[in-house]
């Protein structure tokens, strides 16, 4: 008589209900209860630590904001702050490019180091006015190009009054006490290919 | 009944993506580690720690989070490079502050070249990391680059504050710490730059929107804390070659790990006194026999097992929190990678 084929005994006879064993923790015999205590206490402690940390941040936000700090208002504040930061950054980038333009006009000052130079794909290479660039202009008046472009254009409303200013060399003290960049409203700014429109477009995009 | 899966994401997917994203980060890193003058005491040394290897967990997590939220891989690469440079800067300074002797299987930078040179190299790595973040402006636009910079500033500040807490414990020979104290310190010192910042930076890169202040805090905290406790366990019980650091180095340094805090809490009064006296002495005045005694007491009082169970608990909490934060994402390899990290953290050797 041949023996019947029998299935080998199963490794377990009931489903796994102790989730703490899933990650390999020991849970043998009477130590199971102790293990669960440690795990439970650790998880509880972890949540208390992180929740206290989050509450600290909320209290700090309340102190700064002067009111009840709800997540939505904090997020809104952050977004508004980001928009303002982007606007300032756009202005700074424009000024930086003008300073670099002025510096690069001088021979021997072109960058040759290993780090890649920052460049903006939206930068508009505005045409140079006739007559060439006056020497020393960029170092004294970094915004000189843009002003002269605006005066060449003649239509930009923010530059109408300063169209007589040709270069910082001839007028060391401009009509205004300090040169003011073209403020960015597309409605007010003309449609000419002057740098101020580039700044406007970049700032508008950054504000989205 | 279905056959059990032969492949585990933790053992297959995670190492595969760590290799893939790590290699991409290393290639991009070369751009910032190009040799230039002064070489001998600066730029040749700046490349030392990054070239010694490492798992590249932080940059890989940053890239994976960015891709999981819809970014292109190239968008996240500079941020990943910045994170790796900042991580290496922390390591150089950390080794000086801890007076460590070995890092990634070789002598530490200050052991080879002296503390002044090492500190300066650490500063250079920090500045190079900043450079990489600034370079984001060219490809991501100034707004997003500024948001990333703000996140990086927060991360660096939290890490420095956490390190200050730990250094203060050692300086003051703190012997009455709790597990909660340890977790608070780890949250700042380790979790922010190991898990929280990479996840938040990746989310920024993918969504291109300012973040909810609490996003990824819980998941990053639990994951980073489990990672750090496991790292501390490996320092005592791991394989010397795979671990890459000096085995038992934490005991020599008197680092307040969860195991040491547990031992200080439950040891007998005379043992606690002896331990306190040992910790009050500088490293060079401790003997191998004393360090061995501490290790043996940890085994006797179950401190190692306590830390292991805590790591498991926190990894479980991380898994739970991860399911919540990753729930809305489309299924992807990167999403599975992030979801598998709590398990991988415990299984890595």
Could you describe the 3D structure shown?
The complex is a heterodimer of chains A (208) and B (349). Chain A is elongated and about 100 Å long. The model of chain A is unreliable at 110-174 and 184-208 (pLDDT under 50). The relative contact order of chain A is 0.09. The longest helix of chain A has 35 residues, at 31-65. Chain A has helices at residues 31-65, 71-104, 137-140, 144-153, 195-206. By secondary structure, chain A is mostly helical. Chain A has a domain at 92-106 and 122-206. By secondary structure, chain B is mostly helical. Chain B has one domain (13-347): Farnesyl Diphosphate Synthase, CATH 1.10.600. Chain B contains 17 helices and 2 strands. Chain B has helices at residues 13-29, 39-46, 48-51, 57-68, 73-98, 109-113, 115-140, 142-171, 179-207, 217-237, 240-243, 249-253, 258-266, 269-280, 288-301, 303-325, 333-347; strands at 102-103, 106-107. Chain B has a two-stranded antiparallel ribbon. In chain B, helix 5 packs antiparallel against helix 7 and helix 10 (217-237) packs antiparallel against helix 16. The longest helix of chain B has 30 residues, at 142-171. Chain B is globular and about 60 Å long. Mean pLDDT of chain B is 91; it is low at 1-5. The interface between A and B is large, with 44 and 47 residues.
């Amino acid at each position: 008589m041949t023996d019947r084929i029998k299935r080998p005994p199963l490794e377990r006879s009931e489903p796994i209900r102790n989730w703490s064993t899933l990650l390999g923790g020991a849970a043998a015999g009477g130590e199971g209860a102790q293990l669960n205590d440690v795990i439970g206490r650790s998880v509880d402690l972890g949540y208390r630590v992180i929740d206290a940390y989050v509450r600290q941040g909320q209290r700090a936000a309340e102190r700064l904001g002067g009111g009840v700090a709800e997540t939505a208002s904090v997020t809104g504040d952050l977004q508004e702050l980001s928009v303002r930061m982007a606007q300032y950054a756009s202005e700074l980038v424009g000024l930086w490019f003008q300073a670099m333009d002025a510096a690069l006009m001088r021979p021997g000052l072109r960058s040759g180091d290993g780090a890649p130079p920052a460049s903006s794909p939206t930068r508009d290479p505005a045409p140079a006015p006739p007559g060439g660039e006056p020497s020393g202009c960029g170092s004294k008046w970094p915004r000189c190009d843009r002003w002269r472009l605006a005066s060449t254009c003649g239509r930009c409303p923010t530059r109408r009054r300063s169209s007589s200013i040709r270069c910082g060399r001839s007028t060391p003290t401009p009509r205004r006490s300090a040169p003011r960049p073209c403020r960015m409203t597309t409605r007010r700014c003309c449609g000419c290919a002057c740098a101020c429109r580039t700044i406007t477009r970049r700032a508008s995009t950054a504000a989205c | 009944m279905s056959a059990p899966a032969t492949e585990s994401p933790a053992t297959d997917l995670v190492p595969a993506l760590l290799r893939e994203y790590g290699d991409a980060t290393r290639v991009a890193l070369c751009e910032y580690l190009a040799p230039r003058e002064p070489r001998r005491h600066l730029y040749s040394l700046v490349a030392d720690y990054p070239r010694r290897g490492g798992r590249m967990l932080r940059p890989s997590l940053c890239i994976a989070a960015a891709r999981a939220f819809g970014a292109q891989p190239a968008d996240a690469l500079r941020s990943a490079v910045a994170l790796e440079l900042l991580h290496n800067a922390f390591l150089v300074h950390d080794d000086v502050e801890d007076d460590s002797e070995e890092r990634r299987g070789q002598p530490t930078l200050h052991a080879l070249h002296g503390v002044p040179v090492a500190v300066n190299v650490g500063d250079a790595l920090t500045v190079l990391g900043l450079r990489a973040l600034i370079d984001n402006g060219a490809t991501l636009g100034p707004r997003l680059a500024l948001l990333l910079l703000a996140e990086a500033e927060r991360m660096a500040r939290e890490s420095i504050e956490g390190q200050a807490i730990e250094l203060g414990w050692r300086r003051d020979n703190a012997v009455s710490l709790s597990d909660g104290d340890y977790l608070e310190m780890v949250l700042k010192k380790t979790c922010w730059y190991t898990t929280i910042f990479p996840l938040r930076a990746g989310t920024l890169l993918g969504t291109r929107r300012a973040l909810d202040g609490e996003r990824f805090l819980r998941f990053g905290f639990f994951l980073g804390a489990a990672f750090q406790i496991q790292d501390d366990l490996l320092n005592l019980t791991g394989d010397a070659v795979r671990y890459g650091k000096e085995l038992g180095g934490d005991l020599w340094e008197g680092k307040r790990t969860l195991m040491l805090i547990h031992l200080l809490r439950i040891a007998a009064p005379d043992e606690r006194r002896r331990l306190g006296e040992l910790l009050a002495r500088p490293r060079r005045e401790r003997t191998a026999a004393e360090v061995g005694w501490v290790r043996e007491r940890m085994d006797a009082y179950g401190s190692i097992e306590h830390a292991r169970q805590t790591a498991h608990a926190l990894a479980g909490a991380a898994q739970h929190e991860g399911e919540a934060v990753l729930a809305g994402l489309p299924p992807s390899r990167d999403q599975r990678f992030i979801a598998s990290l709590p398990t991988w953290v415990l299984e890595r050797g």
